[in-house]
Amino acid sequence: MDATPHATPTTSSHAPPDHRHALAFRHVGKRFGRADGTSLEVLRDVSFDVPAGSVVSILGPSGSGKSTLLNMAAGLLTPDEGRVLVLGHETSGTVDWSRLGYMFQDDRLLPWRSALGNVALALEAGSIGSRERRSRAEHELARVGLTDFAGAYPHQLSGGMRSRVALARSLVTEPDILLMDEPFSRLDAQTRTTMHHELLRIHRERAMSIVFVTHDVEEAVILADHIVMLSPRPGRVHAETTVTLPHPRLGTPQAQALVADLRAAIAGLSSDWVI
Amino acid sequence: MRAPADTAGTPATSRTGLALRRTGLLLLLIALWWAASLATAPYVLPSPDRVAQRLVTLAASGDLVANLLTTLSRVLAGFALAVVIGVPGGILLGSNRTLGAFFEPVLPVMNTVSSAIWAIFAIIWFGLSPLTPIFVVLMTALPLIITNVWQGTQAVNADYVELAQTLRFSRLKTLLKIYVPSILPYFFSGARLAFGFGWRVSLVAETLGASSGVGYRLRQASDLIQTDQVFAWTIAQIAMMVVIEIGLLAPLERHLFRWRRDVRS
């Protein structure tokens, strides 16, 4: 879609769509109903922006509503209070969802499809022809270095390779925003570091915003331009930090100092920190 | 990373060994049969060579192939009807919990009804017609297919459905690209079972209520005490099932489920 902000019905809002922000959360609140009739408040008055082209990490303990925020941005959940804007458009209105990519905590590859078939899956929602799907999927697999494994089935691939296939699947649609829900948390430390490099390289090559949910302070510092720290349930924005350190950051004294600072900030929350 | 290389040398030799063992078993059974036939009257237990001669004459007259094809076409018709009704039925029952819970007792009850009872009902309703064996095959195959497809719908991974949601798949695309491949292994094992059962009960139905087909010819031969013919038809129908199994179903299964770890080895 072109940047035509007035094409969308934004009757409820007075503010014009803002395209400097890939994503914007405005006073977002969310409750989930429970089986016993009560409700659980998971998010309260959360506001922050994801500037276009940046990597924003949402850092928080389990139960702080990180994934809920991501699912709202993906349009899978609607906020009870406040608004979520995707590329300047309300998620309750018309959003071109093909401009978003989503990467899950598990690789979530379909076991009956080859690596190539799994990547091509992301192109099958629309009306793209099978030859174009195939060539784009091949191209994307090549970019993550898996050309030789295009025909392999998921069970024949290592954890790192599966993660690359999942990454290729979320990138093959050339999204403007990539939503990532702790995507590397199940990998071993060494593979995770490789995937961090890969992700930062991909981010340099494309005009793309990344929202990266994690509970790992070091991972947030290594990847993010901007860190949004959530408090335990109900999740609120506890602190926001902009990281200007040059890449690669892993093991540098400045990054280590920042990790220590953030850990200290978390320790201040420890009385109600829920793991 | 692909095919495990360490077993590359063994399959050919083990396959030859298996073929030798199977041939040995077959020869042993024929030898036992032949020995037993020496001590009994031909109308009780005809000798293997007598049955073989009968098979040759039946084949030469075209009788053998015609009746096998007649029975097979009836099995296929009943089976196809069971698939057409059973697959949507199983999906419906699996996707709607209220409906599923309501109809759940019907299937085990249907399974307890003997095929002879279905055959008798069929004769009352359809008389001596091809519809009789088709109906019996349908009623036998249907609960098996419904049950398996039903189980398959419940085994669909909710995570894959969520993936389809993030990819903005329509309901139809989610059905075709997530549900169908997830259900396929369950459907296949149900269909295989249903086909085997269907073939067996079709013979029962044909002996009771048809004027052609392998079952009818078996009954005819037994009425005339042509025991060699009974044996010939029995061997012919076993051979046909073995050919279908080895030549069609096993390779199809290997192809469809080649993505599975266990099938490859």
Automatic annotation (TrEMBL), chain A:
Coiled coil: none
Official protein name in the record: ATP-binding cassette domain-containing protein
PANTHER family the UniProt entry points to: ALIPHATIC SULFONATES IMPORT ATP-BINDING PROTEIN SSUB, TAURINE IMPORT ATP-BINDING PROTEIN-RELATED
UniProt KW RNA-binding keyword: no
Record SUPFAM superfamilies: P-loop containing nucleoside triphosphate hydrolases
Keywords for this protein: ATP-binding, Nucleotide-binding, Transport
Entry keyword annotation includes Transport: yes
UniProt domain ABC transporter: residue ranges: 23-257
Family as reported in the entry's similarity comment: Belongs to the ABC transporter superfamily.
One Pfam short name: ABC_tran
Record InterPro entries: AAA+_ATPase, ABC_transporter-like_ATP-bd, ABC_transporter-like_CS, ABC_transporter_ATP-bind, P-loop_NTPase
UniProtKB/TrEMBL annotation, chain B:
Pfam family, one: BPD_transp_1
Alphabetically ordered keywords of this record: Cell membrane, Membrane, Transmembrane, Transmembrane helix, Transport
Membrane topology: Multi-pass membrane protein
Main subcellular location of this protein, as a coarse class: membrane
Compartments reported by the entry: Cell membrane
Gene3D superfamilies, sorted: MetI-like
GO aspect biological process, one term: transmembrane transport
Tagged with keyword Repressor: no
CDD domains hit by this protein: TM_PBP2
One GO CC annotation: plasma membrane
Residue intervals passing through the bilayer: 25-45, 75-94, 106-128, 134-153, 174-195, 230-252
Record keyword Transmembrane present: yes
Family according to the record: Belongs to the binding-protein-dependent transport system permease family.
This protein's name: ABC transporter permease subunit
